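Handoff note, outgoing to incoming analyst
You'll be picking up this chain. Sequence as last confirmed:
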Amino acid sequence: MEVKIIIWNCNECSLDVSAKVGLKLYNEFSIKHPNAFYLRGRVKNWDGMVHFINKGAKFKIGLLPSVVNKCKEFGYKVTIKDRRPPLELPKKPVIAIAQFKLREEQIQAVSSIIYNKVENIPFHIGVIDYTVNAGKTAVMVALYLSFKRKLKTLLITNDSDWLNQAKREFKDYLPDEQITFVQGSKVTNWSNFSIGMIQSISRNIKKYQNELSKIDMVLVDEADLGGSKSYQSVLTHLYNTRVRVGLSGTIYMSQLVKDKLKNMNLRAFFGDIIAQFKLSESIKKGYSTDTVVKMVDTKPWFGNYESSSHDYSEIYKDMITDNKMAHKIILDRLEYNISYGRLPALIVCKFIKHAENIYKYLKKFLDKKYNIAVVHVETKDKERRDIMERFRQGKIDILVSTTIIARGKNFPLLRYMINAADMDSQEKNIQFLGRLVRTHEGKDKAYLDDIHYPGKYLNRHGNHRRIYYQKQNLKVIRLNKGKVKDRSRRYIDQLPF
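Most recent structure output, in case you need it:
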């Protein structure tokens, strides 16, 4: 049996098949919404499924490789008719930018996009999953130059701090290029190479629609966020993007049921992962700093009793936010590492309350010796940017931050980090590590203390993180297992809360 697929434009494909085959594929590319039980009552006649091939047999272009593979799995012959305008391909990728020579892995990433095919049809859509320090910025620029600047290009980011960094970095890579930074609603003339905030573009989608229709190549930084509504809205308006690339060091295709919908949304807009370079490889080649991980066990501050609650927020409050023993251990570990000269230091928390508690606690004991700061979403923008820049320069010794630190921040001087957030997200753990493993002259090793909290949910989360670190071939040491004692009352009695 033959399945005909028509690529109508740079966004959409359709199936030309019998009703029986169409229904089979329709069901195959359907995923039950994780909150279907709660949402079905709000949507009339909804079956609780999210369908990625609609009843008109149409689907997003990023799913083309998946649809083709599934058809072959069923034993169908596949033919593809491409109605998109032709694109002149480079004879070879750029291997050097200005004074920078591309690494082998960077050239491979560029080539994977330029020469990617689906059933002999040019298909310049895919995800480059490259870890921190793998040189994703250089890959973006090399793609632009490989097409000899003939493709009007838009780079999309979601982080204002990264955008400010990009303003400096891209001047080095493209010194003679006029670059437009789309931030806000008052940008009138986009250049041949533009960098835009997703928030600004999505809020002004009607105003920028004409400019978006002219984009030939879109590069999306932190593509793991690409399944969100704002990204989907913007990408849908990029009608003529023959080249669509998602770049991230945190693409993690979880097999958990709750993540299947997210995975399929990513594939729908960005296709499959076509180039990978993991942290373990980066460390082996010397692009990232080798890191020692210590899993630091702690106990409840109120003895051996663990919270009996089944509510995660209550358990988090008991075991983490209000856990005086855990605060003492964080201080102990910080002082120990400071004694070895491991500054600046970063402490990552999940919630504002926890970050503020840690900050106040450290200020009480270390303020006279060290410069300590805290940042979170409630910190004013100007103050946050100032703190981040001073920490980047090493003018702040100890920074306590919520997970806003995870993306787009570059702290090459950072030598020591405490992960006190108890995150069970693989993406977040990759991002945290990314802040620490940046290379810098004289920085031959980095150190991470991961606080392994006790109790329901939290112990499992800690074990998941330990397994992830081990998969990255990092040296993992477990501390305090079964040996946590309250050896000193001075820390606990003087807590500011």
